[in-house]
Every structure is written in C-alpha cells, then in structure tokens.
Design brief:
With about 375 residues, the chain is of the alpha+beta class. Helices cover about 35% and strands about 30% of the residues. The protein folds into 2 domains: about 130 residues, Serine Threonine Protein Phosphatase 5, Tetratricopeptide repeat (Alpha Horseshoe); about 230 residues, no CATH class. The protein is built from 12 helices and 15 strands. Helix 1 packs across helix 6, helix 2 runs antiparallel to helix 3 and helix 3 runs parallel beside helix 5.
C-alpha cells in the first residue's frame, strides 16, 4: 500500500512538472530555482557550504538551459548527500527537461520518500493531490487500536540506566507526586509510515517531568521505541524518519530511524531548511501537513485552565491554612488527524486528560501540580 501511494504522489508531481515544462522552465519554476540558489549562498557552516556546491551549480546550469551540465552536477549533489531530498527533486526536474521521463520519475519518488512535503513549493496544487476518491487504493479493512499513556509496555521501551532509577526515586520522595505516573502529549505526527508522538512523562507535568519521543506501529499499535529527547520539538514524520528540532541554540535537526529510533543524521538549521525542507516555515499553510501534524495544549496552559479561584473572603482565607485556597477541575483535550499517505481511511484521535493535582504536607502545607493521562487511538 505504501508503495502504491508513493508512486501515485510521485506521478502527480511528475505530471504537474510536465505541464510547467512544456515551454521550457516557466517563470514560477525558475523563480523557485533562483530562490534555492540564494538560500544556498547564505549557508554559513563551511562543511555544509562545500557539500551544497554541486546542488548550487546544478540548479544554476538548469536555469541557464544547460541541461547536460545541470544533470552532471545534480547527480554529484545527489550522490554527495543521500539525505538531500531537494537534490533528488531537482535532478528529476533536469532529467524531465532532458526528455528522460523514466529516470525523472524515479528521482522524484526518492525525493518524496525522504520528505513527503519537498515538492510543495514548486507544485502549487499540492493539497489537491489527495482527493477522497483515492481512498479506493486501500481495499483492506483497517485495524483499530488504542494506547493509553503511561503504560508498562511503553515504559519498557524507554532506555534508561541505574542513574535514571535513582533520579526517579529521588523525585518521588522529594515531591510527593508519584514519579512517571502521568503523561501529557505535546505533539503528534502521522505524515510518515508510523505515528510519532512527543510527550511529557512524570509526576508533576508542570514542573518535574521527562520529555519522551515514542513511535507506534501503524497497523498493530505496538510501541516500536521510545527515547528521552530533552529540549526538542517534533517537526514531522517521513516514511523513513522522525525529525526533531533542537529547542535551544544552536538549532539543529536530528533524524531518527522510524523503525529503530537510532540517530541517522544531524543537520544544521541552514542546511536542513535549504537542502531537505525549503518549505519549513510555510508548512502550517499546507493542508496535508496540518491534517497530519498537531501540537497539543501547553502544560502551563492546562495548569491554568484546571485551577479554579475561590471567591475571596474569610472562608477562603481560613481554608488556605489547612487546604488549598482554590478548587480544581479536569480538562479533556482532543485532536483528530488524517494520514495523507493513506488518503483518509486511516484516522487518529489523540486525547489529553489533564487534572489539577493537590497534595497536603503537615509540615510544608499544600502543594499543587498537574497530572494527566493520554490516549493515542487509530480509529479507522
């Protein structure tokens, strides 16, 4: 099924490029080529700049109509960096311009395999490639599954050592909150082969928690792997990788193998946003991206929404000495997602069930925190 969809999407991109190339490299496509050259010029890291030189030369030759030179340089660019989806895509454009349709389609397919959104800037109708009628491609009855977080199966895939155990015990004894008993999903992506989630794991999700990335098998729901990923943000999933962005300087992007969780590649920000995903800042405007990638409520917002202030008065004043000076409630947050690579039949529901937590210490007085459970469910 995945191969069918990948071939279908590559063919749609191919057909769109054919239309644009009937009279040579049309103005809008040429403008995208020039924009790419300009961005390549702005890459600061010396190693990255050297690695990108064949790509720059190839796109420049293509704009000048020198197809033989363009193809030679773009082949070099594609060989120099196996992760350059942009080099593969523009090599496809060059080969198509030269009349080699079969080879062009192959490179376009490889580019989309690396990054499903790579062609979104040079193909204006990208969102229109996903009509509901294509659902007939998937004739098999989809399975359904549910994972509630945290659970022992998922925690069992989380790599740790003896220092992690001591740290967890210290948190539990010192805070009064049961360590690693609450969860809150911060982001999910189902734009790849398997769903990827980033989530908080801890006792008090507003203050004392670990940040975890987990991947679940698309068909069975089994947790394939989990890793601690501190100060990172989930970008999106591809057919091969879970892509995470560092939340602190220097900004880097890490590629983790979707099947094993192993680190496959690390890219600087300039290089990633030029040779892998030029549309990074525009992805939120792309329908197929927003339908398959969601960010959930921040824990700080959930904490505020589950805390209810009491009316000021002598009753609340006296209560503050023996209990909290506010009440609390629960809050349920739900998001629905559709997987663009499955064209609609495979949908997901993600739920965060936030709870404002109260603990009272005889010596230290009342303490507040944020607890929660999360659900990831494939619903169709």
């Amino acid at each position: 099924m995945m191969e069918q969809v990948l071939t279908y999407l590559a063919k749609k991109v191919f057909d769109e490029l054919c239309t644009r190339l009937k009279e040579g490299l049309k103005a809008d496509l040429a403008a995208q080529a020039q924009l790419l050259v300009d961005r390549l010029d702005r890459i600061e890291e010396k190693i990255d700049r050297q690695l990108a030189l064949p790509l720059k030369a190839g796109v420049t030759f293509l704009r000048l109509g020198k197809l033989e030179e363009a193809i030679t340089e773009l082949v070099r660019a594609e060989s120099a960096d196996a992760y350059s989806s942009v080099a593969k895509l523009w090599l496809g454009v060059a080969l198509l311009s030269d009349g080699n349709a079969t080879a062009a389609l192959g490179y376009i397919e490889h580019a989309i395999l690396l990054n499903p959104f790579v062609a979104s800037q040079i193909v204006a109708s990208y969102d229109e490639f996903f009509p509901s009628s294509i659902m007939q491609l998937n004739s098999a009855r989809p399975t359904q599954w549910v994972q509630q977080l945290p659970n022992e199966e998922v925690l069992g895939t989380l790599k740790s050592d003896w220092t992690t155990g001591l740290k967890t015990l210290g948190k539990e004894l010192g805070s009064g909150f049961a360590a690693r008993r609450s969860a809150g999903i911060s982001a999910i992506s189902i734009s790849g082969k398997h769903p990827v989630i980033c989530w908080r794991l801890g006792g008090d999700l507003s203050y004392d928690y670990d940040e975890v990335t987990s991947v679940f098998d698309m068909d069975t729901g089994r947790c394939l792997w989990s890793v601690l990923t501190k100060n990172t943000v989930l970008c999106f999933a591809t057919l091969r990788h879970a892509i995470l962005r560092a939340g602190t300087e220097p900004i880097q992007y890490e590629f983790r193998d979707l099947e094993t969780g192993k680190m496959a590649r690390l890219m600087t920000r300039d290089y990633f946003e030029t040779v892998f995903c030029p549309a990074t800042i525009d992805l939120q405007a792309l329908g197929v991206f927003t339908k398959s990638n969601k960010r959930m409520m921040e824990a700080s917002v959930a904490y505020g929404k589950t805390r209810v202030e009491l009316r000021k008065g002598w009753r609340s004043f006296l209560r503050s000495f023996v209990d909290h000076d506010h009440d609390y409630l629960t809050l349920e947050e739900t998001e629905l997602l559709d997987d663009p690579f499955r064209f609609g039949p495979h949908s997901f529901r993600v739920v965060n069930q936030w709870r404002h937590a109260h603990i009272f210490y005889p010596q230290a007085g009342p303490k507040c925190g944020l607890a929660g459970t999360s659900i990831v469910a494939r619903i169709s």
